[in-house]
Design a protein that fits this description.
The chain is of the alpha/beta class. The chain is built from 18 helices and 23 strands.
Length: 478
């Protein structure tokens, strides 16, 4: 967006599952120069940004505001007035208890153009993932959304207007764990039965989702006993009883498993996607970025004149082809024989309209294209020329995110796709966690990787995860 005053997009991140953000929301992230994000916005979404995008953590926690609202407003204005495209990434929908009104008002004083991109609001998503439809023709024909905590200005209105409180067969309270005793007391005082069904849903739509069911009479003690905390949604009404028959998320094979996926490339982790899809709280670590090698005219001529081309990664495919195209080459200029090392690379070539074969030793000359580490010990020809496609670096923008995620959750298992991922994991883990990484169970792709991890000190194999890797269903689904 070319404007002297920049641009601000208020984007709903959805309730947690990154698949629930809108396409328009992702489009805004890809254009962003700066992203201001909250604790409730899944930080994995920041991977959709460009490598030059700046992250600013607003980090609101109950009773611990990392960045106060006034400062957030000021920062939005400051960054936009620099001519930047600013994304304010908010959990759920920005218009539902997301303070988008306050923030939008702040930037309109400076005539800064903006848009509001809706998101899936957390109460409806939380209910759906807990197996509770907020409406049902036999139990509920209306649905009310309320805040579970109030600012001083509207506190009296929330607790002392029974007619407003009782609206809706189903009532959803946002962020109401601390205020749950008062909520239950008020509803009982207004005539709700003590047997009214209640469900409290913590970290909805993620693999660490937990649900506690009870009644207005019992739920406070049950939540206290389960040690549930924010973020949590409270759903009150007869529809809660449907959970016993249609709860679906908890039935996924890896529900509530907490899995780390060790990384050695900047490409999307298919393992993270697969295990998240199957109910796990999965996080790919560390976050890496690829820095493209800039080819000379002579190097590009070597590539198009080669007898064979061997690609080591899908990243390399993108970097090479984009530079070839800019230099006025196209598919017709490429060698007849093109080879790949992995299925992911093969798929990357297929997207470019190229059928490749699995790389193997051949006496004919070849050019091998990969990152600096992959080109060190490759023997595919007696006459092999290795050209770097890119270098891999740690993406330091994710340091705050890594520190928070690695310490907030009690991770159980780490998955190693290759030997390099073991080394990088150990190198980076110690920067963010004091926990001994050898306490984690592990699983690995291939016997040699498993043996290498054991040699580094990992002792306990996660049999469930290892069996899933050995079955290779994740390859077929991804």
């Amino acid at each position: 967006m070319n404007t002297n005053k920049g641009y601000v997009a208020f984007v709903g991140a959805g309730p947690g599952d990154i698949g629930l953000i809108t396409n328009k929301g992702i489009e805004c992230l890809t254009k962003a120069d700066v992203v201001l994000y909250d604790r409730l916005a899944n930080p994995r979404l920041l991977r959709f940004t460009s490598k030059d995008c700046t992250f600013i953590y607003c980090g609101k926690l109950p009773n611990n505001h990392i960045m106060r609202q006034e400062k957030i407003n000021e920062t939005l204005v400051e960054e936009a007035l620099k001519g930047k495209y600013v994304v304010r990434l908010k959990g759920g929908d920005p218009s539902v208890f997301g303070r988008v009104g306050e923030e939008a008002e702040a930037i309109t004083k400076y005539d800064i153009p903006f848009e509001i991109v809706p998101g899936v609001t957390s109460s409806i998503a939380a209910s759906a993932y807990a197996g509770i439809p907020v409406t049902h023709r036999d139990y509920s024909t209306s649905f009310t959304i309320r805040t579970g905590h109030a600012c001083k200005k509207n506190e009296a209105a929330i607790h002392h207007e029974p007619k407003q409180e009782a609206i809706g067969d189903t009532i959803a309270y946002y962020m109401g764990v601390k205020g749950l005793p008062g909520i239950c007391e008020n509803l009982l005082a207004q005539g709700k039965s003590s047997d009214t069904k209640v469900a409290v849903i913590e970290w909805a739509t993620l693999g660490k989702q937990r649900v506690v069911e009870g009644t207005l009479k019992t739920i406070v003690e049950m939540v206290k006993e389960a040690e549930l905390g924010n973020p949590a949604l409270t759903i009150i009404g007869d529809v809660v009883q449907l959970r016993s028959s249609i709860a679906w998320f908890e039935k996924k094979a890896f529900y509530q498993r907490k899995l780390l996926i060790a990384k050695s490339s900047s490409e999307e982790s298919l393992l993270e996607r697969y295990f998240s899809k199957n109910g796990a709280e999965a996080y790919a670590f560390p976050t890496l970025k690829a820095i493209a090698h800039s080819y000379t005219t002579e190097e590009l001529q070597l590539i198009v004149n080669a007898e064979r081309l061997i690609f080591a990664s899908a990243e390399g495919v993108e970097f090479v082809f984009s530079q070839l195209f800019k230099a006025a080459y196209d598919l017709r200029d490429l060698p007849r024989q093109i080879e790949h090392l992995s299925d992911k690379t093969r798929k990357g070539l297929e997207k470019r309209g190229i059928r490749s074969i699995k790389a193997s030793y051949d006496k004919r000359s070849a050019i091998f294209i990969g990152n600096e580490r992959t080109i060190e010990k490759q023997i595919f020809s007696d006459n092999l020329l290795a050209l770097p496609s890119h270098t891999i670096q740690i993406d330091e923008r994710f340091h705050e995110i890594n520190e928070r995620l690695l310490t907030e959750d009690c991770w159980e298992t780490v998955i190693f796709p290759n030997k390099r991922s073991v080394d990088l994991f150990l190198q980076e883990w110690r920067k963010f966690s004091e926990r001994n990484p050898m306490e984690l169970s592990f699983a690995a792709i291939g016997q040699s990787v498993k043996e290498y991890a054991a040699k580094q000190g990992f002792k306990h194999i996660d049999e469930q995860v290892q069996q899933e890797l050995d079955n290779q269903d994740w390859k077929r689904e991804c």
